[in-house]
Amino acid sequence: MPAPKKNGLQTVWFQNPPVIISTATIVGSKEGQGPLGHTFDKVVEDNYYGENTWEKAERRMLKEAMQNAIQRANLQPQNIDYLLAGDLLNQIISADFVARDLGIPFIGLYGACSTMYEGLALGAMLIDGGFAEYVLVGVSSHYSTAERQYRYPTEQGTQRPLYATWTVTGAAAAVLARQGNGPVITHATIGKAIDLGQGDPMNMGAAMAPAAADTMARHLMDTQRQPDYYDLFITGDLGTYGRELALKLMQQKGYDISTRFSDCGVLIYSPEQDAHAGGSGCACAGVVTCGYLMQEIKAGRLKRILGVATGALLSLCSYQQGETIPGIAHAVVIEGR
Amino acid sequence: MPAPKKNGLQTVWFQNPPVIISTATIVGSKEGQGPLGHTFDKVVEDNYYGENTWEKAERRMLKEAMQNAIQRANLQPQNIDYLLAGDLLNQIISADFVARDLGIPFIGLYGACSTMYEGLALGAMLIDGGFAEYVLVGVSSHYSTAERQYRYPTEQGTQRPLYATWTVTGAAAAVLARQGNGPVITHATIGKAIDLGQGDPMNMGAAMAPAAADTMARHLMDTQRQPDYYDLFITGDLGTYGRELALKLMQQKGYDISTRFSDCGVLIYSPEQDAHAGGSGCACAGVVTCGYLMQEIKAGRLKRILGVATGALLSLCSYQQGETIPGIAHAVVIEGR
């Protein structure tokens, strides 16, 4: 019988940490013009990416990111044991159709904007558990597809409050492997759905901050580590106000991470880009992790990070029926070598 | 390093087969009146189940099934390492809100009507891989929520073709454990998204049959077993016509399973119930597996089965944009002891 790797804790650790052997990113023009624009593999200026709908454009981005990640790993799709993927569209159709095109056994995920890290955590478990040699993880989002599905017709140009975030247009993919060169995943903390009663779908940062703080604090307790063990705590898409809220909640839990806490949504746009509170969407944590963060880790400027992607678990229907918004956050430790 | 449990094949086998220590089911009145009505734990006559929307009724069913499964396992929610759950509603809101209420670390899944088996397969991997002692798997669907989300306003009473299936109202849950009493999961075969070009969303059986046949044939090849190794091959919700199609495709692949092949969707309603081609929905494979099949296995009338839940990977949006419908099928071997 294999030894338990968690012993009743919420955090698992990997006996043979799976390796992130390749990543790939692709983003839209707004993301390309942002402070991290130079860290992405490709910037697509055309919002339709040559397709006739935004949904097909998003799908094309996801497929291209996945194909690039596979190619960079010197693999073929048939070498990959599992594709773990998801997106924000109803029934995760971006992931569904790319899964069809690639022909890799497909495990569909839905964790809202936390999906990239849900996939990294699960993929690492499947590899360290002995069930896979290679796992492909991928996510996508698109401002125009998300806006019209979750909010208003995109063309309507409805005014957005300053605490709203902007859905990142892009896709990210990573290949995890049992062996190889690259940063490793040493731990994963799967989060609980936390709901403190916030019900405004424009203010997702506030809805997700309690989940982010819960997962980060649980991770530190489980591993008996202090915040200074990590060079960086980085959440997915809390945005400016959500990040502040998470910081306060962490202080209440006895952890001061103020000197080492950032958020992918805060980093991806500059204040001049009028994205209000920052970026969001599955691709936000996806492209920042697979682009900027991987490059910083490989260059040795970051040695150990706790990445914590956050998701708001709502639908148009749940909002219309008066429900509040549970948040969720999944954390993964990524270490350079 | 743990030994690989698949060696490049699509099927994994479990060194210490995880045990299904408890299950629970709850269904609506139509399902209660069907041939398997006596095998379900509870039949709810009120389509709203005391709530003010169908979506909340579905959620209440899912929560109750999960709570019952936990209780029957003599556990508390805090003993469960992971909740693996999903449903058909946009952004899987049934699972999201039950995850919030139960407070168990939550891995959201989307595999359309294959989700129960996606969860059983993944849950078994997490346990056998050493990452969990107990995993809770659950799914739900509801005729009225699915009908109005995917097709027409429920009140409209649009005529349905005879090859259409009827979404099962109900919820199912199972607790998997490293040790204990009950049937075991010995193998899992995660399927690929297969699309032979069927584009009629009323004919999901035809869209899913190729995926079912692909996964079943792959499982037999990987395990080097002949069909007579199993007492029963049972698909999730192919319905009458989809089952026939899958049977033919299996014959083309060189496997005759005609004497031992059934479908949960065919079993759950009688022809007199006017459900046309049979049942469908996440709960179809869910309640038939967690109710009828578990009882047959525990009674020794079935010793070894290959359960193969099937999913149609479409959304209203993908259909409206002219896409065909990829199918997917995940298989799990359940053996009595």
TrEMBL record, chains A, B:
A Pfam family per the record: SpoVAD
Domain of life: Bacteria
GO molecular function: acyltransferase activity
InterPro entries per the UniProt record, alphabetical: SpoVAD, SpoVAD_sf, Thiolase-like
Name of this protein: Stage V sporulation protein AD
Organism the protein comes from: Desulfofundulus salinus
Gene behind the chain: spoVAD
